[in-house]
Amino acid sequence: MAKPKKTNAQADSEFAIAQAEYEKQLVAQEKQVEEYKRAQEEVARKKQEQKAAAEQAAADYQRQLEAHARTVRNQQLEYQKQVAKPVGVPNAVYRGFWAPDCDAARKSATLGAGTSTTTRFKEVTSEAGSNGCIVQGWWWNVAGGGTATRQ
Question: Region 32-60: what's the mean pLDDT?
Fold first, then answer.
């Protein structure tokens, strides 16, 4: 049995209905794609924020470690300084001497910065760097009860 033929108006009507349904589905898919892209961008933004927060936390922690290390170094230096303080020498002062190298700085300290052979020096620390060496310690004068002065 032969199918009855559709009229052009019927075919146009069915096509228009199918076209409208297709466009409706296309709009729904485009919305899904946009939502997916927004979700991806949100995930990427949150990852970036988390990364920045983690880097900030790591930097803060590193600063805390460095501050603690400085505190410990200062406490150790103060302890070394007090342990090395000469007993029975009321005129001893703690001071530093600089020279291009540590041996020259020690020589400067033991010769009273070049002004006297009656001075004594008890080294506590020395720190060599690109700008020379600083030797720190207790410095005092043994002649006639004079005081070692800061120069």
Answer: 97
